[in-house]
Amino acid sequence: MDFITSIILGIVEGLTEFIPVSSTGHMILTTKLLGYDDQTPVMKTFEVVIQLGAILAIALVYWRRILDLLGWTRVEPLSKRSPKKKRLDLLHVFLGIAPALVVAFFARDFIKSLFHVQTVLYALVAGGIFMIFSEWYNKHKAQITAHELDDLSYKQALMIGLYQIISVFWPGFSRSGSTIAGGMLSGVSYRASADFSFLIAIPIMCAASGYELLDSYRYLSSDVLGVFAVGFIVSFVVAYFVVLVFMRLIQRIRLTHFAIYRFVLAALFWLFIMH
């Protein structure tokens, strides 16, 4: 791998990790376009490293909320919509990540066998349909009880965690897509669903990346450290600004817009790569 490839993959990871388009799917498709085998040990290790860069970015965006969850400070101030002075706590986070972690731990080898282009293309379409439906349901049928992050109930946190399992079993479905859409189906507002999705990404991605790194750390040799470092930095910088822009423009960028992008991407790859 060279520095140009490292930069390209770092950009792709940073752009796609936290928006509902599937970073895993994009990495599989991009490595195929670049002529690499994404299942080689070095490439898998590189993907873990640049994912850690994206995790660091989201942790920096949500550092105040993280400190609040740990009891080291308090966020400002509670919404007037929270008369009981509820707050998001660590149990919410645990319920949001536990189902996916349990499934990933026991079905790790089976899940890895699903990582190929055709599976990703189907997942891009299926995930897009799921997102369009959730947005319609949230607008027309759901009773919104959690307008902001601190309004989230334990039941809603668990439901989001259960929806997240879809993305664990189906590469290309999108972790953020399944959790944001799942939150909207559970009576959580679009913004609060996105906030919770980004927040629970930190522990679940740290667990997943850390576990994978234990298997592949031996490939972090001096020969590749420079290339890996560049990818890590690029992923961190891009992911940081992507999350800031997404949360600022969240009311203008609907899930349907991401769904349409997914359909177009799947169609292009099907036409020009698979045939």
Write the layout of secondary structure elements.
Layout: H1 3-16, H2 23-34, H3 41-61, H4 63-69, H5 90-106, H6 108-112, H7 117-140, H8 154-169, H9 175-185, H10 190-216, H11 225-248, H12 255-272
Helix pairs in contact: 1-2, 1-3, 1-11, 2-7, 3-10, 3-11, 5-8, 5-10, 7-9, 7-12, 8-9, 9-10
**Series of H and E elements:** HHHHHHHHHHHH
Total of DSSP H or I helical runs spanning 4+ residues: 12
Using DSSP, what is the number of strands? Answer: 0
Mean pLDDT, as a whole number? 88
Shape: globular
What count of domains describes the coordinates? 1
Structural class: mainly alpha
The low-confidence parts are none
Percentage of residues in helical conformation: over 70%
The radius of gyration over CA amounts to 18 Å
Measured by DSSP, the beta-strand proportion falls in under 5%
Span between termini? 27 Å
What about the largest sheet? none
Describe what is shown at a glance.
Catalyzes the dephosphorylation of undecaprenyl diphosphate (UPP). Confers resistance to bacitracin. The protein is mainly α. The protein has 12 helices and no strands.
Structure description:
The protein is 71% helix and 0% strand. The protein is mainly alpha-helical and 275 residues long. It has one domain. 44% of the residues are buried.
Notable traits:
globular; 12 helices; mainly alpha; 275 residues; single chain; 0% strand
